[in-house]
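QA checklist item 7 of 12: single-chain prediction sanity check.
[x] sequence parsed
[x] length recorded as 108
[x] structure emitted
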Amino acid sequence: MTECLLKLCAHRAVEGMQCKAPALRQSDYCRHHARVHRPTAILPAYVFAGETASDIRLALLHTIDDLASGQLSPKLGGQILFELDKRIRALKSNSASDSASALGAQHP
């Protein structure tokens, strides 16, 4: 009997059955289960720093520095910059509506 030279996927179902698909090169899992067992990205702490304009500005600077130095992948850096941009827009929108409501309250 010949020995199987393929490395099988290491994923085990809830029932304990092992996946029968061949593992990818440089991985313990098949192409389907490699996505399930992929490590999640760890976001830098400055992303969660705060909601003021200066906090968001500082997070932008850190993100750009980390992208330039190669500490952040371009994909993750782009996602962080997109989220920070949404925060800036929300902050501008809130401050504009607050200004309008303050003006309306002063002049009936």
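[x] summary fact logged: Residues 74-106 form the longest helix (33 residues).
[ ] second reviewer sign-off
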